[in-house]
Input
Amino acid sequence: MAKATTIDPAEAAHFGKLAADWWNPRGTSAMLHRLNPVRLQYLRQAIDMHWHSDRAGFTPLAGRSALDIGCGAGLLAEPLARMGARTTGVDAAPENIGAAAAHAGQAGLHIRYIAGELDQLAGEQFDLVTSMEVIEHVTDPAAFVAGLAAALAPGGLLVMSTPNRTPLSRLAMIDVAETIGMIPRGTHEWDKFMTPDELTDLLRDAGLTVSDVTGLGYSPSRGFTLGEDRRLNYLLTAVAA
Output
């Protein structure tokens, strides 16, 4: 029997073509560079709240393990390593893993990078699991979420982000951003976006409890911001039920 996979080969190829430009803040991944500080703000808040860590400390993940699924070229994995975590990054595109490993090496960071998907971890579990802007690109969201839950160690924390399926997200992320080149054309399929309720149900079915859902909005004057407005995008945390 063929091994089940949640990887969409077309999606992996699309993002693989962007690998060489991933770390260029003015290149094809410029929007991710603008988004990353807000994601890290949310992530740090979630880490401090979950493990009651020193909010003024630089390494709240010291002694813990972290897994970033759909890591791209390492925009999130590198900050996780700098926060003290033993970090693993997994991505479907080998080109991304090559770029990620090269960049981490230049930065003097020890990050384990793996090309493929969750089942290549052979049942390994992690204190922190992150998956940012990934679930909207997989072939089987329920199976993907089940894999994330299985990779989460007892007492661990899961943090995800994804676009909401609303008229605003279609207008902003596809009709405008992909048309004018802010996001590479063909990056998103609006029908694959998930509402917070839909994702919460998948997480519940996988044995997890959502502990927070926070909106991620955008304005030309302020950039990306966290708040109550979930119409464009949102982040959430979940723990074992």
Notes: The domain at 9-240 is CATH 3.40.50.150 (Rossmann fold).
